[in-house]
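Hi F.,

I've been meaning to write this up properly since the lab meeting, where we talked about keeping a consistent format for the predictions we share between groups. The idea is simple: the sequence comes first, exactly as it goes in, then the structure tokens exactly as they come out, then a line or two of notes. No screenshots and no reformatting. I'm using this chain as the first example so we have something concrete to point to.
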Amino acid sequence: MKKNLPVLLTIILVVVIISFLAIKYTIEATAISKLQIIVKNVQIQELKISYTKLKLNIEISNPTFEEIYQLSADYNIFIASSSIGKGNMDFTNIPAHTTKETSTTTIIYFANVTNAVIEAITSQNFNLKIQGILYAKVLFGFLSISYDFSSGYSYS
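Output, unedited:
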């Protein structure tokens, strides 16, 4: 019986550790899924004959009790339902119950987009949408997790 006690204690310890890691992973994954990504503002910085520069101000809110580590994102930008470019957000940590803002500037070359997009931008009345994937580290930075997101903004 004394020989089996260390084995039994080891098995219990392994089960407790695996259970803790599974619960922590679930809590962190849930926290990432509750992040709120909002396009707060869009500014036309330059409007030329062949291109325009758009500055997007994006707000990321973490309403949960968990800090999100090494958050980054890659996303596509749409105007008039047409893809007009790509954007990304570098690594950042977002503490629990906080909001962070980031901005990115995208150059849109009119030769690469449809007439509907050009008309929408030049008339300065359009709906912009970003759609992409958030990436974060979980389980003390050992694993990565991803989550799809989408946000829109009406420019007028």
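Notes:
The longest strand covers residues 82-94.
The helical segments are 4-33, 115-122.

If this format works for you, I'll send the rest the same way.

G.
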